[in-house]
Write a structure and sequence with these properties.
The complex is a heterotrimer. Chain A is of the alpha/beta class. Chain A is about 30% helix and about 15% strand. The longest helix of chain A is centred in the first third of the chain and has 21 residues. In chain C, the strands form two sheets. Chain C has an eight-stranded mixed beta sheet with strand order 3-2-6-7-8-9-1-10, with helices on both faces. In chain C, about 30% of the residues lie in helices and about 20% in strands. The chains are: A alpha/beta, B alpha/beta, C alpha+beta.
């Protein structure tokens, strides 16, 4: 099936299920995506009336991870009388994974949530399109067949969808949320067994430390420490982030190279075994930094060492929350 | 005469650069082991400065990274052998933490030999000295820590 | 009068001549392809056909990380040195009228009251602004709604209009007149050129697709601080701060002391801060007057469209539209205005 047709089917599925949930009062509100006012965007919305169901859309620009709106740091779905509101959430695979992982970390109660599962068919890489079009203003972007059509004031360009897809979406193995009885409706993944050989990050390991340092330096240099990546990530829900701590001050807040690299290194360390590879961090970066290789490497480490993929099973503990007597320790220093 | 002069030239050259290494040692095993090495007069390189922590599980990865930022050329963390921790499982928790930290430091291009982890018990003074010697030689080979230098 | 013509092929000559006395800052590509205002080494690096830069030109005079002073601990004394680039003579070339107006707002902020910011003041005095008019504004631009215009000349020293293969050069201020006089090789204008510039200005104004009744919006803001509509408007905001980063009028900063323990040197710096950060108003006592996202969101909008007009009679927004383009959740400022305009007035008109 071509992408355009898939999008229409997914949109229909979302609206059907949303209507059903609201009419049967199984939920109080539904969080989903609406059409953006600027060509390369989509806007998360919250609806609570059946009439508003037609505002929900699906296009390949829905890059925000909606699980972010349910972390306790942003409390907005509680009512003084009713307590916690029941929420229906339009979930592509990574959103479902994020919700399951947040429930493993005891940050939300899955019984208050209905996951509207959809078979995601990929997100467009906005920065790559903007780079391709250059300084001409984009007035409209649409998907036709298997291509992306970009229109401006005096130009029209057709680009192949597979090339301009997000790097993480190209290798994604969890396109719909993992199924949970009574909570996940719509299209969900039954008994997911994730097989991944991580060929996209394999050749990075063969570089020398200096080559890796140069690569990381050139990648992270434009960072302006705006923390949009941290705010868009559903796993970053600390009340006081380590960069803001001042008893003691751990790391600098400037845009010096050493400070920038340390921020991303520590953030990656805190994501170890928790990142769900949704790509929201790369999509929201105002400077266009692509953090794909960090998220993929983190997944690789968790999978190869501990056989763990985050957000698949609500009952397995992530690697950093457990330990084992027989863990591998080949990196320990030993006598010759 | 000339022979003696060349010998002093050589010894002066050897005093070029000595790495500064910070060592986080757990109080019950590794710190006692280091003490035993000292009492038994076992020689090991004087490059390390020791920080005593109650358990290797107390070592926050921030300590290690902040040390590298401050210009230390190497970091050594040493704890009890798995199964022998004074607090039962502190070193097992630490081992997982160190695994991820080591992998991430490798990913970002920091030389793998700069940060080393080891297990050493209170009765192994000899082993402590050998491992410290090995770590110091590894760090001497890779050179001083220049990657995090401030540019102002 | 006193307009001159500059051929596009002579831009290199202009930059080289001016570059002898001044440091030239203009729009150029950074390594990732983003357009920023940076120091120009070669004339070929300048971008002239750009819509608008990603990071606004405030970064030239109010940089992201600015040293206030440096210190060094000596044996019996502490030596303090001022920043080295304070008296550097600069030209900012190719700035849009909206961004030029933002410097007026900065002068108001840094120069208000008893304590004036000497750093910004000195830097601004030693800077000459070369503006370029917008012939084709973006769909998201709305400078005409906030008392601006795509060809507004008041806030720059020299104003250029793109006539196709040449620029019309007009000196506005004394600084501008002096500089244009030095460039004696510029050709003279014809009446046709001046007419074309006027036409382009009119076309640009008419092509603005966004029009907002800002006076009414300001009035409604002044009367509706506690309105529950703020919860709906700020629902999708994630508090990322991208809007404050790219806003030409946002000027909040944080002051930090840094030291290098190896060399007994240190410095005090100021960095850009964002009011959307959860610890923006956190006091040392632990109390935080704005703990919730709604309050911080409301503060930003009211600061630009209510407190500034009320206190200084200036609108705190230049209408560049960068916040609309960059917002990751597409929380469009224009939609906010439309929602606000739908609020009925508190005092109902008496129906007789």
């Amino acid at each position: 099936m071509v992408i355009e047709e898939e999008n229409q089917n997914i949109e229909q599925l979302i609206r059907e299920l949303a209507r059903k949930l609201l009419e049967e009062k199984q939920v109080d509100v539904i969080i989903g995506y609406a059409k953006g006012t600027v060509p390369l965007s989509s806007a998360p919305i919250v609806i609570d009336k059946v009439e508003d169901v037609d505002k929900l859309i699906w296009n390949n620009l829905c890059y925000i991870n909606l699980a972010k709106y349910l972390v306790p740091r942003i409390p907005q779905f509680t009512d003084p009388e009713k307590g916690d509101l029941k929420v229906g959430i339009v979930s592509k695979g990574c959103v479902g994974r994020a919700l399951i992982h947040l429930s493993v970390e005891q940050q939300l109660d899955l019984n208050n949530i209905k996951i509207i599962g959809i078979p995601c068919n990929g997100i467009i890489n906005r920065k790559k399109i903007e780079k391709e079009i250059g300084e001409r203003e984009i007035l409209e972007l649409s998907v036709s067949g298997d291509n992306i059509v970009v229109k401006g004031r005096d130009f029209e360009q057709t680009l192949p969808f597979d090339e301009y897809e997000n790097e993480l979406c190209k290798v994604c193995k969890v396109k719909s949320p993992p199924t949970i009885a009574d909570i996940c409706i719509g299209e969900c993944l039954e008994n997911p067994v994730i097989m991944d050989d991580f060929t996209d990050v394999a050749d990075f390991d063969s570089k020398t430390p200096d080559e890796k340092w140069e690569y990381v330096k050139s990648l992270l240099e434009p960072c302006t420490r705006c923390y949009a990546c941290r705010e868009a990530c559903p796993m970053c829900y600390c009340n006081l982030c380590f960069v803001d701590q001042n008893k003691p001050v751990w790391f600098g807040k400037t845009t010096e190279l050493s400070d920038i690299i340390i921020f991303h290194l520590i953030r990656a360390l805190h994501m170890a075994g928790r990142c769900v590879a949704c790509g929201a961090c790369s999509s929201v970066c105002p400077m266009g930094i692509d953090l794909t290789f960090i998220t993929r490497s983190l997944e690789k480490i968790a999978k190869e060492r501990y056989g763990f993929t985050s957000g698949i099973d609500p009952k397995t503990l992530p690697p950093m929350m457990a330990f084992d007597m027989d863990d591998e320790q080949e990196f320990m220093l030993e006598e010759d | 005469m000339s022979d003696i002069q060349t010998k002093t030239d050589q010894s002066e050259k050897k005093e070029e650069w000595e790495p500064k290494i910070i060592a986080f040692l757990c109080n019950w095993c590794s710190y006692a082991g280091a003490d035993l090495a000292g009492v038994s007069r076992i020689q090991y390189p004087a490059n390390i400065r020791i920080v005593r922590v109650p358990c290797s599980g107390r070592v926050n990865p921030f300590f290690i990274i902040k040390s590298l930022l401050r210009g230390w050329d190497g970091v050594v963390v040493s704890g009890c052998h798995p199964g022998d921790c004074h607090y039962i499982s502190g070193n097992l928790v630490a081992r997982r933490r160190f695994t991820f930290l080591k992998e991430l430091l490798n990913l970002f291009g920091i030389e793998p030999d700069r940060v080393t982890f080891m297990w050493s018990s209170a009765s192994e003074g000899d082993r402590f000295a050998t491992l410290i010697k090995k770590a110091t030689n590894m760090i001497k080979k890779i050179g001083p820590n220049k990657k995090f230098e401030k540019t102002w | 009068m006193g307009e001159k013509l500059l051929n596009k092929s002579d831009i290199g000559k202009l930059i080289n001549e001016l570059g002898k006395e001044y440091s030239i800052y203009a729009a150029t590509n950074d390594k990732q392809g983003n357009i920023i205002f940076d120091k120009i080494e070669k004339a070929e690096d300048i971008l002239l056909d750009y819509l608008n830069s990603k990071i606004p030109p405030k970064s030239v005079l109010f940089p992201k990380v600015e040293t206030l002073f440096e210190y060094e601990i000596k044996d019996d004394d502490i030596e303090i040195t001022n920043p080295k680039d304070l008296y550097e003579k600069r030209i900012i070339f190719g700035i849009r009228p909206c961004d030029a107006y933002s410097f007026q707002l900065f002068e108001n902020f840094f120069g208000y009251g008893q304590f004036k910011d000497e750093l910004f003041k000195t830097k601004k005095e030693n800077t000459i602004l070369f503006g370029i008019g917008c012939n084709l504004p973006r769909q998201t631009c709305f400078c005409t709604s906030v008392e601006g215009h795509p060809h507004k000349k008041d806030d720059v020293d020299v104003f250029l209009v793109d006539l196709g293969d040449k620029y019309l050069v007009e000196s506005i201020s004394e600084k501008g007149k002096n500089i244009v006089q030095k460039l004696s090789w510029l050709s003279n204008t014809t009446e046709a050129d001046i007419q074309k510039a006027k036409e382009l200005s009119k076309l640009a104004e008419e092509s603005m697709s966004t029009k907002i009744d800002i006076k009414k919006v300001i009035k409604i803001f002044q009367e509706n601080f506690d309105n529950p509509i703020w919860d709906d408007i700020s629902m999708s905001c994630i508090g990322c701060g991208s809007c404050t980063l790219l806003c030409p009028t946002c000027h909040c900063f944080d002051v930090i002391d840094e030291n290098d323990p190896m060399s007994k040197k240190g410095r005090r710096i100021r960095l850009w801060d964002t009011c959307q950060s959860s610890i923006y108003t956190l006091e040392t006592s632990g109390h935080n007057p704005r703990p919730n996202k709604v309050q911080r969101f409301r503060n930003r909008i009211l600061h630009k469209f209510c407190y500034y007009p009320t206190n200084y009679d200036l609108i705190g927004c230049v209408g560049c539209g960068r916040c609309i383009n960059i917002c990751p959740v597409n929380n469009d400022l224009r939609n906010i205005f439309n929602s606000i305009l739908k609020i009925e007035k508190k005092e109902e008109v008496k129906v007789v």
